[in-house]
Design goal:
- The protein is an alpha+beta fold and 150 residues long.
- It has a single domain, classed as Gcn5-related N-acetyltransferase (GNAT) (Aminopeptidase, 3-Layer(aba) Sandwich), CATH 3.40.630.30.
- The protein has five helices and nine strands.
- Strands 1-2-3-4-5-9-6 form a seven-stranded mixed sheet, sandwiched between helices. A two-stranded antiparallel sheet has the order 7-8.
- It starts with a strand and ends with a strand.
Length: 150
């Protein structure tokens, strides 16, 4: 199993990225501006994440997804740790993550990996997404912002 950077937006696994972010417009925007990495095993993509520089010395993990059949096997945690390592090696000082208030599993994972909640962007998903999003029986309304010093 290895992680490699995708060098062309056309190669990015769009269907997998859309699992974590249902806005095709947003996904296209950040894969064109950011760095897309895939987790591969035997030439099959098992997961994907996108890092996006946002401000000097700050990078954001804007998407991270594991193929459904490979979830709950530690691959998300592995990719998250690799994303942190990549950002650190590229000289970034802080990594940020934004996730929905309804993303209970993701919130737990991020905090287990050392991220701390730094704020809430109220009604983010109401304002910026055309369709309602529900996870875990909860309407996704607010973006929970997390950060980790690298």
């Amino acid at each position: 199993m290895y992680i490699r950077e995708i060098n062309s937006p056309e190669e990015a696994p769009l269907s997998l990225l859309l699992v974590a972010d249902p806005s095709e417009k947003a996904v296209h925007d950040y894969i064109n501006r950011g760095m897309c990495f895939v987790l591969e095993e035997e030439e099959d993509i098992r997961g994907v994440f996108v890092l996006l520089p946002t401000r000097p010395h700050i990078i954001e993990l804007v998407n991270i997804t594991v193929e459904e059949t490979y979830q709950n096997k530690g691959l998300g945690k592995f990719m998250l740790k690799e994303a942190v390592n990549i950002a650190r090696l590229k000289g970034y000082k802080t990594m940020e993550i934004g996730t929905g208030n309804s993303s209970i599993g993701q919130l737990a994972l991020y905090q287990k990996c050392g991220f701390r909640i730094i704020g809430i962007d109220g009604d983010f998903f109401i304002k910026h997404y055309d369709e309602d999003i529900y996870e875990n029986g909860i309407r996704c309304r607010d973006m929970i912002r997390l950060s980790q010093d690298l």
